[in-house]
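Exercise 7b. Backbone tokens:
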């Protein structure tokens, strides 16, 4: 029996996923039998396949080979150069970025600056090779998590998962007013292409936003948003049309809240991938971007404390 101490990369993951990633050459039937008869033990006790591990726990297995997750998943930066601060995660086939407000997700003209072109520079992409692309976009002035597959198969897979709404995307927004503690906004939206804005229209695309109040000072509030659908400008329009515009949103907010910040205080806080076997070692992984300083500063100045 061999013992291995689990690290942060295994924390919160199912035991069967940890075994698959650690010993992929062991047949599935052999892994499941070892679990069933107690040859796999966590902290000395028999464990079920769906139990989730914690960092620091000791996993005992009957295989002599070293686990594959002992090999770093993150590609080291070239010698003498660290990854830039906007890189949250860099794996074999995925880069996760914390896009700063003000950056385009992808270039608007040949040779233009954007998150995607900076990833090309970071990865040393040459002519004729696969060029990483964003699996989803954020508006120029929205900050936060963006997934950038480094291979064509993963790009196709994430596009399919997004289309089937299998990814969980959570946003944080600072808004004017105090909405109820929880709620849903179900307003159909239609985009006016020439004006680059959306309007409420029963003939438009159905859209659903769920929200939760995290904190307030009685005049402004921090909300957690779950964009069940992914319509253009959905969070900004839904909140404004419901009477709680995002601070700094000059497109949808009235003059006073619109002037409260230099940009809409909307942040793509977290993206969680589904437990899909096709994702292999990325299945169930979540990526969180810290609150940007402009939003954190407003919270401090207003004395808004929030609970998760």
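Sequence design result:
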């Amino acid at each position: 029996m061999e013992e291995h101490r689990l690290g942060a990369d295994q924390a919160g993951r199912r035991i069967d996923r940890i075994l698959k990633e650690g010993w992929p050459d062991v047949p599935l039937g052999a892994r499941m039998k070892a679990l069933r008869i107690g040859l796999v033990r966590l902290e000395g006790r028999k464990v079920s396949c769906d139990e989730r591990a914690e960092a620091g726990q000791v996993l005992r297995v009957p295989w002599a080979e070293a686990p594959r997750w002992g090999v770093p998943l993150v590609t080291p930066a070239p010698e003498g150069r660290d990854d830039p601060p906007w890189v949250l995660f860099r794996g074999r086939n995925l880069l996760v970025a914390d896009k700063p407000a003000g950056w385009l997700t992808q270039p608007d003209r040949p040779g233009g600056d954007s998150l995607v072109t900076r990833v090309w520079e970071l990865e040393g992409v040459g002519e004729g090779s696969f060029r990483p692309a964003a699996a989803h976009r954020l508006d120029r002035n929205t900050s936060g998590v963006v997934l950038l597959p480094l291979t064509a198969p993963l790009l196709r897979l994430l596009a399919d998962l997004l289309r089937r709404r299998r990814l969980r995307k959570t946003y944080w927004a600072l808004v004017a007013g105090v909405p109820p503690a929880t709620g849903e906004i179900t307003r159909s939206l239609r985009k006016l292409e020439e004006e680059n804005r959306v309007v409420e229209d029963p003939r438009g695309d159905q859209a659903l936003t769920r929200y939760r109040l995290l904190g307030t000072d009685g005049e402004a509030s921090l909300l957690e948003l779950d964009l069940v659908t992914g319509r253009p400008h959905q969070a900004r329009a839904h909140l404004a049309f419901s009477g709680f515009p995002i601070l700094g949103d000059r497109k949808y907010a009235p003059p006073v809240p619109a002037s409260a910040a230099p940009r809409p205080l909307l942040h793509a806080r977290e993206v969680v991938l589904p437990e899909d076997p096709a994702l292999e070692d990325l299945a169930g992984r979540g990526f969180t971007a810290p609150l940007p300083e402009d939003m954190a500063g407003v919270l401090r100045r207003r004395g808004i404390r929030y609970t998760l």
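Instructor comment: The two ends are 41 Å apart (CA to CA). The helical segments are 15-22, 28-36, 115-123, 152-163, 234-241, 255-258, 293-302.
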